[in-house]
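Complex record, two chains
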Amino acid sequence: MKLITVGTVAFDSIATPFESREKVIGGAATYISMAAAYLNGECGVVSVVGDDFPTAFMNELKSRGVDLAGLQIKEGEKSFHWSGKYHMDMNSRDTLATDLNVLATFEPNLPENYRDAEYVMLGNLVPAVQIAVLNQMNKRPKLVVLDTMNFWMDVAREDLDKVFGMVDVVTINDEEARQYTGERSLKKAAAKILTLGPKALIIKKGEHGALLFSQDEVFFAPAMLLDDVVDPTGAGDSFAGGFIGYLAKMNDTSFTAMKKAIVTGSAMASFTCEDFGPDALLKVTEEQLNARVNVFGDMVRV
Amino acid sequence: MKLITVGTVAFDSIATPFESREKVIGGAATYISMAAAYLNGECGVVSVVGDDFPTAFMNELKSRGVDLAGLQIKEGEKSFHWSGKYHMDMNSRDTLATDLNVLATFEPNLPENYRDAEYVMLGNLVPAVQIAVLNQMNKRPKLVVLDTMNFWMDVAREDLDKVFGMVDVVTINDEEARQYTGERSLKKAAAKILTLGPKALIIKKGEHGALLFSQDEVFFAPAMLLDDVVDPTGAGDSFAGGFIGYLAKMNDTSFTAMKKAIVTGSAMASFTCEDFGPDALLKVTEEQLNARVNVFGDMVRV
């Protein structure tokens, strides 16, 4: 398996100012693997669900190249459930409930054919699990990308610092980059994070696009302008999946390839925002994806 | 006079989370004319001050190509004074005081040689004064650019709608575009504003860059990444001045020219943020400006 991801596979209950939905299919690894397999052809998932997770959706994922050999199914237990409410701006949200369920005792156990993966996406999860996944690899992967969030900065800072030192690329949102470093300037925040080990940093700004930093280069990709944002849940994960899926497909980890990967990830994220849960992402055709990638180029061309 | 602007020439008292300054030189027309004259060589100013406005600074402006024949000086009266406080994010602020002083009774009276201007920048001001300036022109200028703000939406909506129908380009910030149109999506907000008459709309997003819309095209320019934002006051006006100054210099009002003009305006705005008041803008060299314009191209090149 060339590309694997670890992250949640879960249910989300989502309230936007316009509509609410209960127990939509969600989870970081769900969105990452869908977007990544779309580009790369396959993506292995390391995660856990209860026996309440729908078999039909697992079959849907499998039919799209998502390998579920690394997905543990716990009989008699419930899947992870997140509940959140978006503000009027649809760019910020409050978490209403986090029911860990099966995730409380999750210990990843990588199938043998995952342990030689060259591309590893560590989706947002407790840093100790992200570290455990890396420790099970037979050799250092070609590229490890880490996504994280402010919650882990508060409750697992030491592990988080440690995993930052074990990866090649970190993706984080702008406010979290500021919080993590204590720097208001994103330029200074990026420089600080890059001293921890990663060779590249992606700062996600939601509807304001994304920045890619290396030690001496910076690249900016705007976000797609949408008629309507229906539900941004999973946009960051679709972005990450599109990013690593593109790099795995091209088998290229250069800064230049990362620029194109960010544009591809941004296009993936824009589709996810157009409906609740993974519904919009499930319907994307190759023509639609290519057309959207081209729009990004047109938007910034002087 | 090829290029003129109307707007405030004023004093600002500015508090940031890090430092405060009393009675710094400010005003929309001050920043606009400085940035515009920098590019175009000259810019006429239609405004009013009291006898408290420093002669030395007026001479400094004149030495830089800013023509003050349209600046009324009211003996025994005080200049307009704005006082504001920036939030921790340095991207939003509260107005603490607005002392209109000479501005309360301001009636613009354009010098004869301003009335044939081809490029007119209507800086943020009561819409009735912006209209009065346009009504004094001998012929329809080649390009009229309007800047405005939410305050006028609340207190002078009718005049504001009217002046929107008299101009070629509107510049407005993202939250104001949403407020003005009632649309959350900037794409939809832009489409609505363009139905009012302007052929182009610039939506300013501060540290998140700027969008340029026409009926069928969209362009995005990121904001410069700065080590430190010292004081963003005047950034939007420096942007507008750089925008119209570039177009006047090139004598080109095409969409393609506007793209380059936005990048130039963004560079001007970035300098303004690096010190209080117009101090940083006063020190910019041509080499620095060109270098910064090039950074924008590098940032978005895939």
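Note: Chain A touches chain B at residues 88-90, 184-188, 205, 208-209, 211, 218-222, 225-229, 256, 259-260, 263, 297, 299-302 (CB under 8 Å).
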